[in-house]
């Protein structure tokens, strides 16, 4: 679930069925039509197109996909999705919206048309992210079953490859900003990986949860998940954001479950050789509800106090640090009743409960064989 | 070592393939240690024949001496049935030293984890013999052949690789034929092409399911397809 989106000169934050759209001079509000008489319905993903012409959002229970014109904020098209979705993204040319849904399907909506919506491919697992490469040739999707799939486009029936190696759900995928030959992914296994996505080859790994300087957090999380019947070894990555830093490197921001610091890395590729460096750990008062980059500014959203913080990069003596640039209060002129769910609840469902029906069978078989021997 | 008795391994024919079962699978095919399944084999040989939903393993046992150089794997999701096949293969290996070293069984969910075990284009042959028909319309999504899963099978199959299907349910046969024929990465083999393939006749009687259909005087429908290259041009 993402409740924040931004581009060069505007940002949008979702809360319940409402959006605060801010163009850095004034706030405008948007109310998504209430289709059902339920308080549970809310916006679960919001995104602004790269050319800042459109804003798209999806809702959980009413399963709406709505595209608005920017900056007027007028409704342009709306669709009802066949199934509950988890993530939407504009295609690189901003004429389609890709939808990744909870039943495992990727759909494409051409929002210039009325009755659009075509299934492109299907996993048998809940999808968490989807993207299309800049050259439009591949659709890449990732799921709860540790998989990243690379499908050809528009011939999506042809699977180019899989990027396999994560040990838990893959919750974010992005094109590596400074070199679009590669993608990068984050996972519940606490790792960030870098892939040559045409060949499905793992190029580099950052074990981000090793940089958590508080061992108790992992023990606490393991204990809580153990009560749920899930074995957890690492803290999961929750949020992931990347941006181009210079022609050879990208900036990476990672948040790790229950850890109130934002990890900042640089990832450098020179002649296809990868190297990373931890640059900073930015302490935060509250665990952010969303993070993203606009150019080299880091945007954090605190959904309890509804504050967007913008931190800008300071590059001195070869070390990168961030300093607070400004804070923006969202939903200041608008009362929105919405209970923010704890992030633990959202991430819990992505783990698989273990139930072992083999061991029980093997024991009964052993007893049967022993009986015969006697 | 005696062959296992089937009466101890009976299990209902249906399994929910969508639910989270507890399976061990490698994160990547390179991480899987195949020598546990094929202890007598050395070198770099890879599984080339895959029997999806192998049941009691009749086809594997039949094909093993016909293709002694090829590694074959049966996949079976049901705990007791896959254990039966394993015990059967172990007993056969003891009874016939030097034989049956090229067949093995694995309990996994073929609808979810094939890319975890097999590289792109690794398989030469895939078998879907008497798959669960899942008659109810609401359960059609559980069928082992559908438009979306065919893309995964095409991914692990080598170009020119062959897929064999057989069923006693006419409706399922037609369903499988339509889905393969509509998929751009498969084409159906003609009757003439089938005649020269020694495997075809084995599809009818080598499996326990096939013998049951014969006892009940049921019909058998065979359809065979080839993995072809992608004709898509930009």
From TrEMBL, chain A:
<comment type="subunit">
    <text>Forms a heterodimer with the catalytic subunit Mettl1. Interacts with mei-P26 and weakly interacts with bgcn; required for the function or formation of the mei-P26-bgcn-bam-sxl complex. Interacts with nanos; may be involved in mei-P26-dependent derepression of the BMP signaling pathway. Interacts with Myc; the interaction may be mediated by mei-P26 and may be involved in the regulation of ribosome biogenesis.</text>
</comment>
<protein>
    <recommendedName>
        <fullName>tRNA (guanine-N(7)-)-methyltransferase non-catalytic subunit wuho</fullName>
    </recommendedName>
</protein>
<dbReference type="InterPro" id="IPR001680">
    <property type="entry name" value="WD40_rpt"/>
</dbReference>
<keyword id="KW-0819">tRNA processing</keyword>
<keyword id="KW-0853">WD repeat</keyword>
<comment type="pathway">
    <text>tRNA modification; N(7)-methylguanine-tRNA biosynthesis.</text>
</comment>
<dbReference type="InterPro" id="IPR015943">
    <property type="entry name" value="WD40/YVTN_repeat-like_dom_sf"/>
</dbReference>
<keyword id="KW-0539">Nucleus</keyword>
<keyword id="KW-0677">Repeat</keyword>
<comment type="function">
    <text>Required for the Mettl1-dependent formation of N(7)-methylguanine at position 46 (m7G46) in tRNA. In the Mettl1-wuho methyltransferase complex, it is required to stabilize and induce conformational changes of the catalytic subunit. Required for binding of nanos mRNA and repression of translation by the mei-P26-bgcn-bam-sxl complex. May cooperate with mei-P26 and nanos to derepress the BMP signaling pathway. May cooperate with mei-P26 to suppress expression of a subset of microRNAs. May cooperate with mei-P26 to regulate bam expression levels in germline cells during gametogenesis.</text>
</comment>
<dbReference type="InterPro" id="IPR036322">
    <property type="entry name" value="WD40_repeat_dom_sf"/>
</dbReference>
<comment type="function">
    <text>Required for the formation of N(7)-methylguanine at position 46 (m7G46) in tRNA. In the complex, it is required to stabilize and induce conformational changes of the catalytic subunit.</text>
</comment>
<comment type="similarity">
    <text>Belongs to the WD repeat TRM82 family.</text>
</comment>
<dbReference type="Pfam" id="PF00400">
    <property type="entry name" value="WD40"/>
</dbReference>
<dbReference type="InterPro" id="IPR028884">
    <property type="entry name" value="Trm82"/>
</dbReference>
<feature type="repeat" description="WD">
    <location>
        <begin position="163"/>
        <end position="205"/>
    </location>
</feature>
TrEMBL record, chain B:
<feature type="binding site">
    <location>
        <position position="129"/>
    </location>
    <ligand>
        <name>S-adenosyl-L-methionine</name>
    </ligand>
</feature>
<feature type="binding site">
    <location>
        <begin position="76"/>
        <end position="77"/>
    </location>
    <ligand>
        <name>S-adenosyl-L-methionine</name>
    </ligand>
</feature>
<keyword id="KW-0808">Transferase</keyword>
<keyword id="KW-0489">Methyltransferase</keyword>
<feature type="binding site">
    <location>
        <begin position="109"/>
        <end position="110"/>
    </location>
    <ligand>
        <name>S-adenosyl-L-methionine</name>
    </ligand>
</feature>
<keyword id="KW-0694">RNA-binding</keyword>
<keyword id="KW-0539">Nucleus</keyword>
<comment type="function">
    <text>Catalyzes the formation of N(7)-methylguanine at position 46 (m7G46) in tRNA.</text>
</comment>
<comment type="pathway">
    <text>tRNA modification; N(7)-methylguanine-tRNA biosynthesis.</text>
</comment>
<keyword id="KW-0819">tRNA processing</keyword>
<keyword id="KW-0949">S-adenosyl-L-methionine</keyword>
<dbReference type="Pfam" id="PF02390">
    <property type="entry name" value="Methyltransf_4"/>
</dbReference>
<feature type="active site">
    <location>
        <position position="132"/>
    </location>
</feature>
<feature type="binding site">
    <location>
        <begin position="207"/>
        <end position="209"/>
    </location>
    <ligand>
        <name>S-adenosyl-L-methionine</name>
    </ligand>
</feature>
<dbReference type="InterPro" id="IPR003358">
    <property type="entry name" value="tRNA_(Gua-N-7)_MeTrfase_Trmb"/>
</dbReference>
<feature type="binding site">
    <location>
        <position position="53"/>
    </location>
    <ligand>
        <name>S-adenosyl-L-methionine</name>
    </ligand>
</feature>
<dbReference type="InterPro" id="IPR029063">
    <property type="entry name" value="SAM-dependent_MTases_sf"/>
</dbReference>
<protein>
    <recommendedName>
        <fullName>tRNA (guanine-N(7)-)-methyltransferase</fullName>
        <ecNumber>2.1.1.33</ecNumber>
    </recommendedName>
</protein>
<keyword id="KW-0820">tRNA-binding</keyword>
<dbReference type="InterPro" id="IPR025763">
    <property type="entry name" value="Trm8_euk"/>
</dbReference>
<comment type="similarity">
    <text>Belongs to the class I-like SAM-binding methyltransferase superfamily. TrmB family.</text>
</comment>
């Amino acid at each position: 679930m993402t409740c924040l989106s931004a581009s060069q000169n505007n940002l949008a934050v979702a809360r319940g069925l409402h959006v605060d759209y801010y163009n850095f001079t004034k706030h405008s509000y948007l109310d998504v039509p209430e289709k059902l008489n339920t308080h549970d319905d809310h916006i679960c993903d919001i995104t602004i197109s790269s050319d800042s012409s459109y804003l798209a959002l999806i809702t959980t229970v009413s399963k709406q996909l709505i595209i608005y014109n920017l900056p007027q904020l007028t409704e342009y098209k709306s669709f009802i999705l066949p199934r509950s979705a988890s993530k939407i993204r504009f295609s690189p040319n901003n004429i389609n919206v890709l939808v990744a849904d909870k039943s495992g399907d990727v759909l494409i909506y051409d929002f210039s048309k009325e009755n659009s919506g075509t299934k492109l491919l299907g996993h048998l697992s809940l999808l968490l992210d989807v993207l299309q490469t800049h050259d439009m040739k591949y659709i890449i999707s990732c799921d709860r079953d540790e998989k990243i799939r690379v499908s050809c486009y528009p011939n999506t029936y042809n699977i180019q490859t899989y990027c396999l190696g994560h040990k838990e759900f893959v919750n974010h995928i992005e094109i590596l900003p400074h070199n679009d030959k590669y993608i990068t992914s984050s996972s519940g296994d606490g790792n960030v990986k870098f892939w040559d996505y045409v060949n499905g080859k793992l190029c580099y790994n950052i074990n981000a949860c090793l940089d958590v300087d508080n061992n108790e957090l992992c023990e606490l999380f393991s204990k809580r998940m153990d009560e749920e019947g899930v074995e957890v070894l690492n803290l999961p990555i929750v949020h992931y954001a990347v941006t181009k830093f210079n022609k050879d490197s990208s900036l990476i921001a990672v948040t790790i479950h229950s850890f109130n610091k934002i990890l900042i890395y640089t990832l450098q590729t020179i002649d296809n050789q990868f190297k990373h460096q931890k640059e900073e750990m930015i302490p935060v008062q509250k665990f952010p509800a969303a993070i993203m980059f606009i150019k080299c500014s880091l945007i954090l959203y605190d959904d309890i106090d509804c504050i967007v913080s913008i931190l800008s990069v300071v590059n001195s003596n070869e070390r990168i640090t961030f300093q607070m640039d400004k804070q923006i209060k969202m939903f200041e002129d608008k009362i929105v009743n919405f209970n923010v769910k704890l992030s633990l609840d959202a991430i819990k469902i992505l783990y698989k409960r273990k139930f072992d029906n083999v061991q029980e069978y093997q024991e009964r078989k052993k007893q049967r064989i022993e009986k015969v021997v006697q | 070592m005696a062959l296992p008795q089937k009466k101890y391994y009976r299990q209902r024919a249906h399994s929910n393939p969508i639910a989270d079962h507890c399976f061990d699978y490698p994160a990547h095919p390179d991480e899987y240690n195949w020598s546990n399944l094929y202890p007598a084999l050395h070198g770099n040989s890879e599984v080339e024949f895959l029997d999806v939903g192998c049941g009691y393993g009749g086809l594997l046992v039949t094909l093993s001496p016909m293709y002694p150089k090829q590694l074959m794997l049966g996949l079976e999701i049901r705990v007791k049935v896959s254990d039966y096949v394993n015990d059967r293969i172990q007993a056969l290996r003891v009874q016939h030293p030097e034989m049956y070293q090229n067949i093995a069984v694995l309990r996994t969910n073929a609808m979810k984890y094939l890319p975890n075990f097999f590289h792109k284009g690794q398989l030469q042959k895939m078998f879907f013999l008497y798959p669960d028909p899942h008659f109810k319309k609401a359960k059609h999504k559980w069928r082992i052949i559908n438009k979306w899963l065919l893309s995964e099978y095409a991914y692990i199959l080598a170009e020119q690789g062959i897929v064999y299907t057989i069923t006693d349910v006419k409706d399922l046969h037609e369903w499988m034929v339509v889905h393969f024929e509509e998929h751009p990465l498969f084409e159906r083999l003609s009757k003439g092409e089938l005649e020269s393939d020694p495997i075809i006749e084995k599809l009818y009687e080598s499996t326990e399911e096939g013998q049951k259909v014969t006892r009940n005087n049921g019909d058998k429908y065979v359809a065979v397809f080839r993995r072809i290259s992608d004709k898509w041009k930009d």
